[in-house]
Task: structure prediction
Amino acid sequence: MIAQRLLAGIDGGPAWSAHLERFGPLPDAADLADLAERASLRGRGGAAFAVAAKLRSVAGRGGAPVVVGNGVEGEPASGKDKVLLRYTPHLVLDGAVAAARYLGARTAVVAVARSARSEQAVLARAVAERRGDGVALELATVPDGFVSGEETALLQALGGGPARPTTKPPYPFERGLRGAPTLVQNVETLAHLALVVRNGPAWFRSVGTAEAPGTALVTLSGAVGQTGVYEIPFGTTVGELARDAGGFTTSVSAVLVGGYFGAWRAPVDVDSLELTPEVLGAGAIVALPRDTCGLAECARVVRYLAGESAGQCGPCLHGLPAIAGAFERLAAGDDRAEQQLARWSAQVAGRGACRHPDGVVRFVGSALDVFADDVAHHRRRRCTRRTRALLPVPAARR
Amino acid sequence: MKRLTTISVDPIACDGHGFCTELFPERISEDDWGYPIIDPAPIPPGLEAHARRAVARCPKQALRLRVVAPVRER
Result:
């Protein structure tokens, strides 16, 4: 069930001329929020927030709003935003322009991580070759980091501060970039907007499900024939996606769906698991081969995520390293570790300024469910699986 | 008209000094690292004085009292 909407233009390359040839010029939308509502378009950065509601919340503030396209993609297992920016940047910029026109914003900023050099180069060329937008398009980079893409962290970084979340309220629609009411949308969301403006909500709804219409980009990695970024209609099952990707290359012990803030799923569940906006999260899926130790993989990821805390909120700053330590002891066969994980997970959930601790708790909780047999084997020192760094974890930053 | 008041903490501002858990134990407990865990349930009028004292004594001014909704008594 492979779809070709956002990725329909990638063979033509990222040039403005190829984009116009493939998609035509960006028409003016009468009411973008109305189109987004009728399309039931939801954000693709992970939170699946309704785009129409976000557009209207900014529009209702008056003043001089700003549009920010979020292409930071700090999730290590995800590459879909980078693919989109490299191969079809004008679709993203079209979406930013459409949103800016609707809001009366004079400026739209597209932000990517500092390490995303080729995306920066493609975007810079793309911005330079566009004509007739009536909107000033700016590129910006922010420091790499898992939380850099959290919208308040992104806005603080764009304003010259550290890439760390801020207390809400005020929300970005109230006081965002340089104090202006700000629309922050993931770059994939903007690209979908660009197609909804051209083709209308009925076209958008013609694939996917009634509740979750349209397509989504998915970054698939691990034990599948062809890893990479796929575009699928919502409602596609993990089994269908895996078959389209050449099938699982070996027996799979678990599949991580939704990236590091997603959840592990058992093999019996994944074949029929439908990919909805909630399940898909930020769009990363990793198939874990059975010969690889899930607990060792998770211990590495949890330690990484603990290190990615912005360090501002006590429960996250202290709780995540405690949880990472407990997970490492769990993998080493310590009897008390599971109880500690339960206690500390309950203590950190919901207690940060952002959802970073909640994401870690979700990851840990689903790992304990899906790898319950492994936990028992580790207690008896009987794990026969290999330890290898399958789940990507960036090297520590200075 | 009865007021419905809750207390909340700004987790970025909070440094875990711990005064609030001593001053308002009815709604605030401590986690394993000394940071306040706040019961989001509405505060009964009889406890509002405790809540106000905790808010006033926080060295980081990280606590907020919020009037959620005036509730009309039947």
